Amino acid sequence: MAKGTTKPTAAGVRAETLPVLPGEEPWTDAEVEEVRQQLLTSIESLTAEIATAEADLADLMRDFGQGAGDDEADSGAKQYERDHEIALTNSARTMLAEAREALERLDNGTFGVCDSCGGPIGKARLQFAPRVVLCVACKTKQERR
After folding, report:
1. How far apart are CA 92 and CA 100, in angstroms?
2. Sequence ranges of the domains in the chain
3. Which residues of 61-85 are buried (b: 16+ CB within 10 A; e: fewer)?
4. Which residues contact 83 (CB under 8 A, 6 or more apart)?
């Protein structure tokens, strides 16, 4: 391979074609692979976390149904624990979907494009949090609403 050229990523996308902010260096194959591995690791750990949480939730639901003799404090504590576990599981499912979508964007060459304005998100931001879909300016606007 000639000096200065890069090979396509695992999905056939050239690393240097991924968008970057002005002043940022183009993506390298190693950086893209690092982000890919980060996403794959995240997907694997979130999948395991969800499976564990679903098993725990099934146990909580079974225990909740058997609490006919519980006083109000026990019932309230069980309800809180169940609601908390549901919220954590839903959060993990959301993060899993985001990680899968980020991996898909990485594979199809749209990784790093802001969903709102279509501009670059920024390489540094994506290396830190590869699941993000908005540039800093659009995220700031979204949070002000």
Report:
1. 12
2. 25-109, 112-145
3. eeeeeeeeeeeeeeeeebeeebeeb
4. none
How many residues in total does the chain contain?
145
Distances in whole angstroms, Cα of residue 102 to Cα of each of 1, 3, 10, 39: 28, 29, 14, 8
The answer to whether 131 and 99 are in contact (CB under 8 A) is yes
Alpha-carbon gap, residue 31 to 54, rounded angstroms: 34
Q: Is the pTM of this model over 0.85?
A: no
User: DSSP characters for 55-106?
Assistant: HHHHHHHHHHHT-TT--HHHHHHHHHHHHHHHHHHHHHHHHHHHHHHHHHHH
Q: How far is CA 80 from the centre of its chain?
A: 26
Q: 56-66, pLDDT tens digit by residue?
A: 888 777 766 55
Residue with tokens 């670059």: 120
Alpha-carbon distances, residue 50 vs 42, 90, 94 (angstroms): 12, 9, 11
Stretch among 16-30, 52-66, 86-100 having the lowest mean pLDDT: 52-66
